[in-house]
Design a protein that fits this description.
This protein has 18 helices and 14 strands. The protein has about 475 residues and is α/β, with parallel strands linked by helices. The strands form 3 sheets. A 6-stranded parallel β-sheet has the order 3-2-1-4-5-6, with helices on both faces. Strands 11-10-9-12-13-14 form a 6-stranded parallel β-sheet, with helices on both faces. The chain has a two-stranded parallel sheet with strand order 7-8. Strand 7, helix 8 and strand 8 form a beta-alpha-beta unit. Helix 5 packs parallel to helix 6 and helix 9 packs across helix 11. The structure holds nicotinamide-adenine-dinucleotide (NAD) and uridine-5'-diphosphate-xylopyranose. Nicotinamide-adenine-dinucleotide binds next to helix 5.
Length: about 475
């Protein structure tokens, strides 16, 4: 064959698409196919209007697509062709049945394994790229054994650590690549095959190999630790608002201790995204399953703090605006769960929108990357707010393409995503167009509050001394 190796990735989402595009870019002699059951998703990947927004992604895709990178819905054929099959499908929190609201649903992973078992005609390495509960590899291995052609399969765990908004740089230059495999000669050989793919651009000492269970569990632990830092600093933000301390000063002072480190200490309206909450809940459920209730409660606390932080923000808005926002226009700047992505899964913005809708506010929302359709579907899926159960939803929420128009005539502005473009808005122009007193709520700590106050805004910011209690700080 003209190829050194053939790879298929099942699942062309936020992880499968960018990860495979980078492998293809870095390994021109490997044939990489990204497959999905969704024709719409694959059509998107085959166009210049990619299904996800990620800085630098289109360039990478364009470089490799048609050369050694292909997108297809013909999964049966591509499974047969491939030497390595990645499973990179979604593993959302279960919404019903045993473990509802906590356990990860690995149904999609199981379906992939069953399809591989059914159609494979040669030996293969099957790689869990999805984030899964520890010990999922043993289930995948048992399903693969049902293959009738007597082929052998090695299951590897290779969790993905990329963050959205920086996927391409994270993939090009990862802190580490983690590969877990069975500690048998065949397992170690399979792990080496996968390691040699990454070694095309990643230094060997950053490619870590472990047993299967450590690899699966490390992914949940890494996300739990990161989210824990955000919840820790957010808990302090509440204390700051009451005491006159400033959370940014605390992050700086605490983070300069090398043992603690600077990153992930940015206080915010709360963490969002498809991973943190889901993966911590997954960990909580695992602890419960193994009878470790104290461990489950410990990690549950990280989520409880995040829920408190989101709720606290909405309550602050209402309290500041004379305890009522009914009929008032409030502008929401930012709907994505962080900057540089159009992803809205579990975005804190949505929870603020939900709370303010319940208070009767009229919301005008602006986000440079999020479509109205995506706002509604996530709102309905996660918050249960939809057109059927919430009359006049369309009248209460307006989405705008122009940020100044969004703010025109509003009583309050809320910054809920840290988009760079929000840092340099003409706030004087915004102030002049608003109802007075003009309220400003910075949920991301990206604006110059002193300058805003000089313009005339009444400014509230996460973790900053409450202006009504502490003047001149
Ligand atoms: P996603 O929803 O963006 O993409 C999943 C894709 O899989 C969808 O396009 C879906 O149509 C497809 N799919 C579902 N069942 C399939 C099947 N049987 N065969 C083929 N395709 C199928 O999800 P994602 O954000 O890419 O996440 C995938 C996994 O990676 C999850 O387990 C997630 O926890 C993990 N992860 C995500 C991130 C992230 O930042 N999004 C980071 C690290 C790990
Ligand atoms: C996360 C992990 O970082 C990544 O390694 C993993 O593979 C997937 O989950 P992601 O959810 O894409 O990545 O974004 P991340 O940058 O971790 O941010 C998650 C949330 O935490 C965002 O809502 C972000 O705004 C918030 N956050 C992050 C803070 O509020 N403060 C911080 O200091 C850092």
């Amino acid at each position: 064959s003209e190829w050194d190796l053939k790879i298929l990735c099942m699942g062309a989402g936020y992880v499968g698409g960018p990860t495979m595009a980078v492998i293809a870019k870095q390994c021109p002699k490997i044939r990489v196919v990204v497959g999905d059951i969704s024709q719409k998703q694959i059509d998107g990947w085959n166009s210049d209007n990619l299904p996800i927004y990620e800085p630098g992604l289109l360039e990478v895709v364009k470089e490799a697509r048609g050369r050694n990178l292909f997108f297809s819905t013909d999964l049966d054929k591509e499974i047969q062709e491939a030497d390595i099959v990645f499973i990179s499908v979604n593993t959302p929190t279960k919404t019903s049945g045993i473990g509802a609201g906590r356990a990860a649903n690995i149904k999609n992973c199981e379906l992939c394994a069953r399809q591989i078992a059914k159609v494979a005609k040669s030996d293969k390495i099957v790689v869990e790229k999805s984030t899964v509960p520890v010990r999922t590899a043993s289930a995948i291995q048992r399903i693969l054994k049902s293959n009738e052609n007597g082929n052998s399969f090695q299951v590897l765990s290779n969790p993905e650590f990329l963050a959205e908004g920086t996927a391409i740089t994270d993939l090009m230059n990862p802190d580490r690549v983690l590969i877990g495999g069975q500690q048998t000669p065949e397992g170690l050989k399979a792990a080496e095959t996968l390691a040699s793919v990454y070694a095309n651009w990643i230094p060997r000492e950053q490619i870590l190999t472990t047993n299967l269970w450590s690899s699966e569990l490390s992914k949940l632990v890494a996300n739990a630790f990161l989210a824990q830092r955000v919840s820790s600093i957010n808990s302090i933000s509440a204390l700051c608002e009451s005491t006159g301390a400033d959370v940014s000063e605390i992050s700086r002072a605490v983070g300069m201790d090398d043992r603690i480190g600077k990153r992930f200490l940015q206080s915010s309206v709360g963490f969002g995204g498809s991973c943190f909450q889901k993966d911590i809940l997954n960990l909580v459920y695992l602890c419960e399953t193994y009878g470790l209730q104290e461990c489950a409660d410990y990690w549950r606390g990280v989520i409880n703090m995040n829920d408190f932080q989101k709720r606290r923000f909405s309550e602050k808005v209402v309290a500041a605006m004379f305890n009522t926002v009914t009929g008032k226009k409030i502008s929401i700047l930012g709907y994505a769960f962080k900057k540089d992505t159009g992803d809205v899964r579990e975005t804190p913005s949505m929870f603020v929108v939900r709370d303010l809708l319940q208070e009767g506010a009229k919301l005008h929302i602006y986000d440079p990357q999020v479509s109205r359709e995506d706002m509604w579907s996530e709102m309905s899926y996660t918050c249960g707010v939809n057109h059927d159960n919430t009359p006049r939803l369309d009248e209460s929420v307006t989405t705008e393409d122009d940020v100044y128009k969004t703010c025109e005539g509003s009583h309050g502005v809320c910054i809920l995503t840290e988009w760079d473009e929000f840092k340099t808005l003409d706030f004087k122009k915004i102030y002049d167009s608003m109802a007075k007193p003009a309220f400003f709520f910075d949920g991301r700590l990206i604006c110059d509050h002193k300058a805003l106050r000089e313009i005339g805004f009444e400014v509230y910011a996460i973790g900053k001394p409450d202006p009504n209690k502490f003047s001149g700080v």
